[in-house]
Amino acid sequence: MTKAQAYTRAKLGIGYVPQGRAIMPALSVLNNLKFAATAIGRNDKDAADRVLEDFPRLKAYLGRPAGALSGGEQQLLALARALMQRPRLILLDEPTDGMQPSIIKEIIEKLHQIRQRDALSVLLVEQNAEFVAAISDRVLALQKGQFTSEQTAAAFLASAEESLT
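^ that's the sequence the OP posted. Answer follows.
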């Protein structure tokens, strides 16, 4: 899988939101979304409509260059762009990095809704324990490439809070 081209993974139903967002800043918000669907050979207006219903904040910015959005809005765009491809699995790499709490809360709410509606699986790499617990059913801890523990989200959060005290 690691040797497969990005468009091949997308066609297999794997979405990816990289750390740092990797949006195309010179393209408009709308063209960032369209690019995602077109890249896998899908011209899907229904996907765009659905993604914009999920992320209504982006509707006001459709004609604006993506690079002009705030960091949190760029993260919403990166997530929306990955969802344009209607993945069954989405990989999120440090999605809360440098984001304000209100955007983090919005992402949590949207991911819950989308996971329920679309039976979407989420694989998350994240250091924010509260975000991890809010998104996850179970948490696997890795250290140097080896699994070191598996916990429920509640147990993970309790152990994370305990380690801070």
